[in-house]
Design goal:
170 residues, alpha+beta, 10-stranded antiparallel beta sheet, two-stranded antiparallel ribbon, 2 helices
């Protein structure tokens, strides 16, 4: 951000801090605060991808898959909302994963919250989500979400998730 860094003893001569040092430091802190607030404090939309291996699902006609995120320093909070469509649904096969808006920092382990709903049977479950590699794995009760768990996905079913994690350096 442009400040020349000097050691504290060089700026603290005779028990009085150099006014220019204090002014420069104050300017840098103000610039950093403005940068973080303006660039990362607001929610930004992103379009997540729901995948499975070996076959990714098709959420069907009228489906909704939305995401948003915001950052505070290197911490990123992401929220997801998925609503299955009314027709043309294919549940795919395998464990479901959601894409992340930004890659996690190396070795990050993070847990988030999960909510799933199956309106046709009024079933609802809470759970957790976690970062696995560069994606988000979802677990309701003791079951990893997949094409058949915790139920067979159908029209109007919903998945909501939120997680906070440290992302790669900007």
């Amino acid at each position: 951000m442009g400040a020349t860094v000097t050691t504290f003893p060089e700026q603290f001569v005779g028990q009085v801090a150099d006014p220019e040092f204090i002014n420069n430091l104050t300017d840098e802190v103000t610039r950093l605060g403005t940068y973080v607030t303006s660039a990362y404090a607001t929610w930004k939309p992103f379009t997540p991808t729901l995948t499975a291996t070996p076959t990714s699902p098709n959420l069907g006609a009228g489906a909704s898959l939305t995401g948003r995120y915001r950052m505070a320093g290197s911490l990123l909070t992401a929220e997801y909302t998925i609503v299955w469509g009314s027709s043309g649904i294919s549940v795919g096969s395998g464990i479901y994963r959601l894409s992340l808006p930004r890659p996690p920092a190396f070795g990050v382990k993070a847990l988030g919250v999960l909510w799933v709903s199956h309106p046709s049977t009024l079933a609802q479950q809470a759970g957790v989500c976690r970062i696995v590699g560069t994606g988000l794995e979802m677990i309701a009760l003791d079951k990893v979400l997949s094409h058949a768990l915790p139920w067979t996905w159908a029209a109007g079913d919903q998945i909501g998730a939120a997680i906070t994690y440290e992302n790669e350096a900007i």
